[in-house]
Amino acid sequence: MHPMLNTAIKAARRAGTIINRASMDLDKLSVARKGPRDYVTEVDRASEEAIVEVLRTAYPDHAVLGEEFGLQGPDQAEFQWIIDPLDGTTNFIHGFPNYAISIALTQRGQVTQAVVYDTARNELFTASRGSGTFLNDRRVRVSGRIRYHDALLGAHWPTASDPTSDRFRDMTDGCAGVRRMGSTVLDLAYVASGRLDGFCGVKLKPWDLAAGSLLVLEAGGLVSDFDGEQGWLDSGNVLAGTPKVFTQMLTSITPRPAA
Q: Binding site for Mg(2+): what residues are annotated?
């Protein structure tokens, strides 16, 4: 196992201890609102602090980009860690056990190491570029689903009241079902491990996508933006899936109306 991946796993497990301890007494949580349906707790912050401490102790010349505290370290560092200390905070607050820690390492902008840790289930998803994707030390791959009408998708997209939601109608109507479970990093991990056949996300952040994208790619899946290009980390719009399902998802997206 790559030593930098080992460090990321150590950081994820340390943060997981904090999250699991807090999950035993949710009534004592201090919750703040960052925006509409966007919450943060002291657990998010404590988790990020624990992760950053492990990473920057091991690699002080690396930069760290985190959801809660932004960029720490050199602006132009060759290596940058991208972390979400608790993806699925709303689920966590409600005691709904679908949330996870996400840690990715980029080298010159390319994701090379990835960890997604589901603390509630003690499931650790890992990947190193060129070495495959693993769930608790067992190699996993995307599903073998080829028929789109049999595909189960994960989603993070606008509600029906949003005028842009029409773009995804064909995608929704053509598949077996769509699940909005509230944790993008777990949705992508589930695509990588064959539990979901595809995922569509809109207006996501780099910490939502970096680790999960490598998991999917190393498990034999495909990832792109809505134009079939590699701009998803910048745009926040992403498709991921098995090769056959991915192609049909991309075809099903209605083009954005001209301005």
A: 67, 84, 86-87, 208
